[in-house]
Amino acid sequence: MTITATIHKSLLKYTEVTFVIKLITFTALLYYFNVFYIAITDANGAIFSSFLHSYLDYISWLRTSILHTAQLIGQTFGLKSYIADSYTLTVPHGPGVIIGYTCLGYGVMSFWIAFIVAQQDTWQRKVSWCLIGLTSIWLINCWRIAVILIALAKNWNVNQYLDHHDTFNVVVYALLFLLIYLYYKHSKKELKTNRPAHSNKDLLVTY
Fold first, then answer.
1. Fewer Cβ in 10 A, N or C end of the chain?
2. What is the domain extent for residue 82?
């Protein structure tokens, strides 16, 4: 075995362990930061911050964007609806969908950001892939809310067979696996493109 191969194998093991630790740590930090932020921007919370609630409440921005986009999707399919309050999308004189905190998808979003940040990559690629993943998760969530509202308005008996939270999780994690595959595939292509040419003599040091 060459010295180069031995060093390379050791570095790979170290990198894998480091990546897993970073992934778990970043996911937990992001997830619980969101939970904490929800608590301090909730007017009924024990540690409410009026400044953050008024000017930096990204949780409400996320919910509002989902409400408006789901409403637009429903209108595309001929369903009239209106936003009754900051949580609810409702059909006139009909059913509605309440978007609670657990419906926002910040858990899977936290995982995706942590996965990308934990990579050894350029910040430009990290930003790009973070945006690709977050946008995809957000779009799926918007479609989920729209489909639920359409199903309720048309009296589809889907809740008897499917739980929309479970369905959303399955679809999102399937999407994440696809994105992870595409990310690594794209990374390998870039590595091959940018790899400098060396002869075998330059790479191998035997003992």
1. C
2. 57-192
State the residue for tokens 């093991």: 13
CA 47/CA 36 separation, integer angstroms: 10
The position carrying tokens 């930003």 is 127
The pTM of this model reads 0.83
85-116, pLDDT tens digit by residue? 999 999 999 999 999 998 999 999 999 999 99
Tell me whether residue 13 is in a domain.
no
pLDDT band at 16 (very low <50, low <70, confident <90, very high): confident
Whether 81 is covered by a domain: the verdict is yes
Query: Is position 71 within any domain?
Result: yes
Cα atoms in the Cβ-side hemisphere of radius 13 Å centred on 151: 16
Query: Domain for residue 125, yes or no?
Result: yes
| Residues 141, 104 contacting (CB under 8 angstroms) | yes
